[in-house]
Amino acid sequence: MKLKGQVAIVTGAGRNIGEDTAKHLAAEGAKIAVVDFDQERGDKVAAEINASGGQAKAFLTDISNEDDISQLMRDIVQLWGGIDILVNNAAISDNKHILEITKAEWDKVIAVSLTGPFLMSKMAAAEMVKTGAGGKIVNVGSTSGFYGRKRAVAYASAKGGLVSLTRAMAVQLAPHNIRVNAVIPNKIGSPVGKSEFDPTRPVVNLRGRNGLPMDLARAVLFLVSDDSDFIVGDALFVDGGVSAMMVGD
Ligand SMILES: NC(=O)c1ccc[n+]([C@@H]2O[C@H](COP(=O)([O-])OP(=O)(O)OC[C@H]3O[C@@H](n4cnc5c(N)ncnc54)[C@H](O)[C@@H]3O)[C@@H](O)[C@H]2O)c1
Q1: What pTM did the predictor assign?
Q2: What is the pLDDT of residues 100-138, one digit of tens each?
Q3: Alpha-carbon Rg of the chain, whole angstroms?
Q4: CATH code, domain carrying 153
């Protein structure tokens, strides 16, 4: 087991990419804090991990709320004694054009999708520094953070910022033996904010199949395990090669 006895937080672990990531990390022996602001989803995933022989607990947390996060960190440290791994997966999108998005809509997306990972990382890293054992942080970005899109102006901006946050934290936390990286998905399972998968959606990538939550989960597992010990501040594309393709070629 690659993560035996380690404590891992996975945000947005109630479904899709976060759910599979939580289950993959649990299967490698990590104790999982299943963080979601949807109680039912979080409870279900934690129960499934426990039923399959893993160890998990659901924590009802809004990652855009600083008080919620402080409480979360206190609860986890009290329960399991420390934090080894943080996966910043939860995010929301706006699906808006710049000419129509309101400031309130912009603020909400940035609060969850960029400030959330910042606050979670700041507070989890403080716990990692306290124990002196180091740790790993993985941010779940998006190809939307690299390329212009017709919609989702706030989401694209948050995800672009998340890559810069990854590099800044990689440098600032390296002296504490905390390794920070990002994964960059494109079209995995159901779209962000939705539970339903549309099988008629055209597949545009170099693998000729839809991306699965498991594809991301495996990449995150790699980045939080010692198999990736020399990889720091990286943004690993898990997109079936779509970012390698020239538009219109
Ligand atoms: N699905 C994709 O095709 C895709 C593509 C690119 C990037 N991503 C990224 O992958 C990550 C996961 O995407 P997904 O499709 O699995 O998302 P999803 O919408 O299916 O699941 C997100 C989970 O996060 C929870 N959540 C939302 N806001 C929260 C908050 N404020 N506090 C706590 N929990 C909250 C939701 O309840 C939900 O369970 C996101 O960062 C997303 O931007 C996904």
Answers
A1: 0.99
A2: 999 999 999 999 999 999 999 999 999 999 999 999 999
A3: 17
A4: 3.40.50.720
